[in-house]
Amino acid sequence: MSGITIGEATADERLWAGRLMASSEPWITLGRGEDACRAASVDPDYVVLVAREGGTPLGFARLHPRGVAGSPYLASIAVAAPARSKGVGAALLDAAEARFPGARWMFLCVSSFNERARVLYERSGYRAVGELPDYVVDGLAEVLMVKRLA
Known about the structure:
Layout: E1 4-8, H1 11-22, H2 34-42, E2 47-53, E3 56-68, E4 71-79, H3 88-98, E5 105-111, H4 115-123, E6 127-133, E7 141-148
Parallel strand pairs: 4-5
Antiparallel strand pairs: 1-2, 2-3, 3-4, 5-7, 6-7
Helix pairs in contact: 1-2
């Protein structure tokens, strides 16, 4: 997609991000309801970046600046259904990595059943370094992934 801009979320866009999370995988399977997703999206300890085209939000990335061993952690990323498979997720990953100049590593977790997301992360240079079985839901795992940034 051309014409995408990425910047920090407004208060309304943070609420939009919470609604998008609540209506999307992996949060549906993980049992995260709208209240939990809304609370996560407005948490001031997290940076929320939004991809926009013509002022319309297309997707978001939610980041904790020191989430894993003092390194940035991508806690959530989602793209609205009409904008999927058009490079928005990759653009958000690039912006997330650039958001913390000087960071050596970026971490994220991907649900074991979320193959589409895992392919995106691997294509972007992330590699699995561990698995957390039954971490959120019994019978499913979260896969810890990392990328060397600098």
